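testing teh design pipeline on a random one, pls ignore if ur not involved
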């Protein structure tokens, strides 16, 4: 039973007061409900509805899709891509129709593609040309990367991707493959992890694209047999069953380069590291970044915080037919392949840490990390690919413009950036030699005396680099 309070008012007034109180409580309830709904129904994260351009239209150019179904012509909206996303948080079930990758391919499309479809058609990037008849792996060397820039602010430094050079094989191929296998035996998942199944689709797609590349670029050394079920490597004299061997394992046993697979998270639209094989890290290891978003992986890089938003935005829109390359560099005093404080408590970057005065110019190596960055057409994964190329610093002595350019960068570059690229004693010894070599080139007329130091037009190479490469390979 409900009792009215004794307010000293008439019964009618009490009922009127009660009505007012009830109205106030009702209004408050509506307001609180509105506030709760405002809190629980939040707008999607900034990148949740941002997707790369679709390549699904390329299916019409493949033989198995000549008779297209009406579903293959339907418009796939960003809202559909988000609501019906193929999961990247668990092993996806490709048997379920109507789920989509970020590039708009449906699960039924993926099943219909089969093994080794024409990835040039799917990606919109041509196949490589085969190496010439005079190419000999016993004499092959890396291109002479010299990615020095002056007159710039720090950014991603992206360059044009060259389809013939996705993978570069050189004379140390067999030795490098053996060294990588030894590292895997020693360090295991610090250099190799395939994820929990979420990256399986991307890993298989990457494997097929790379094997397709090797067979076309180096046809005398690699081939596919039995309808794409077997891969033959004549350089290592191995035969790999592609049906039973996990795709990243196939790549680790045949390709001497590093790969990191980033998958788009269906909730926030950001890209996370889900699988990788990385042997060339110095001062870190790839396991430290497992399942991390892009911006968390690059926190140690100078100016990374300033570039984080633009990188996320760029990644979310990267087109399949617009891969890029870049090349970073550092100066080291030994040819480190894999080093990490996580596996060596006494780790130091320099081999001369306890005796810096013993360093001379002959000990210094230019390390270039040549990288490519591309989106896989079907899975929509973004793949980093990189290789470490070491060159004795003294080799730069005869390369036009290079000594003066590198000297300027080391002398006047941002302190935190140069500190990231080399330790102090390496910097001082290198600068002394580079200054002398730059003066020699000016005296010999190789470099005009009035040349204003700046990024070379041939960057990341230098004038005459093609001729040098041909000489080194015996052409």
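output:
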């Amino acid at each position: 039973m409900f009792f009215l309070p004794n307010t000293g008012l008439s019964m009618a007034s009490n009922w009127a007061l009660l009505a007012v109180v009830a109205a106030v409580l009702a209004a408050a309830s509506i307001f609180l409900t509105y506030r709760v709904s405002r809190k629980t129904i939040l707008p999607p994260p900034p990148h949740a509805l941002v997707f790369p351009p679709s390549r699904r239209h390329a299916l019409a150019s493949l033989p198995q899709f000549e008779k297209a179904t009406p579903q293959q012509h339907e418009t796939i909206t960003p809202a559909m891509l988000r609501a019906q996303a193929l999961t990247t948080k668990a092993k996806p079930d490709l048997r379920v129709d109507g789920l989509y990758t970020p590039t708009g391919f449906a699960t039924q499309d993926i099943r219909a593609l089969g093994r080794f479809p024409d990835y040039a058609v799917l990606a919109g990037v041509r196949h490589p040309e085969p190496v010439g008849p005079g190419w000999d792996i016993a004499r092959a060397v890396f291109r002479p990367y010299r990615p020095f820039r002056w007159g710039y602010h720090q950014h991603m430094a992206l360059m044009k991707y060259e389809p013939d050079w996705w993978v570069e094989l050189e004379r140390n191929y067999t030795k490098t493959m053996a060294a990588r296998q030894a590292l895997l035996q020693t360090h295991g998942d610090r250099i190799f992890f395939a994820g929990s199944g979420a990256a399986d689709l991307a890993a298989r797609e990457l494997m097929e694209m790379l094997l397709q590349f090797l067979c076309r670029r180096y046809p005398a050394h690699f081939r596919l047999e039995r309808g794409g079920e077997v891969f033959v490597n004549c350089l290592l004299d191995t035969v790999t069953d592609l049906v039973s061997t996990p795709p990243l394992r196939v790549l680790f046993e045949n390709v001497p380069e590093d790969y990191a697979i980033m998958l788009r998270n269906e909730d926030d639209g950001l890209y996370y590291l889900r699988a990788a094989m990385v042997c060339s890290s110095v001062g870190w290891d790839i396991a430290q970044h497992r399942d991390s978003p892009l911006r968390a992986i690059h926190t140690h890089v100078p100016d990374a915080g300033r570039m984080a938003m633009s990188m996320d935005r760029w990644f979310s829109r990267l087109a399949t037919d617009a891969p890029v390359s870049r090349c970073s560099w550092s100066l080291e005093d030994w040819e480190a392949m894999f080093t990490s404080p996580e596996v060596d408590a006494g780790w130091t970057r320099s081999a001369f840490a306890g005796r810096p005065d013993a360093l001379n110019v002959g000990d210094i190596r230019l390390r270039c990390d040549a990288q490519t960055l591309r989106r896989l057409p079907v899975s929509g994964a973004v793949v980093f690919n990189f290789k470490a190329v070491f060159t004795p610093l003294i080799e730069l002595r005869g390369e036009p413009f290079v000594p003066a350019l590198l000297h300027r960068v080391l002398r006047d570059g941002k302190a935190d950036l140069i500190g990231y690229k080399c330790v102090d004693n390496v910097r001082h010894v290198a600068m002394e030699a580079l200054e002398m070599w730059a003066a020699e080139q000016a005296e010999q007329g190789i470099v005009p005396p009035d040349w204003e130091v700046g990024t070379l037009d041939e960057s990341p190479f230098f004038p005459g680099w093609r001729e040098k490469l041909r000489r080194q390979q015996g052409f």
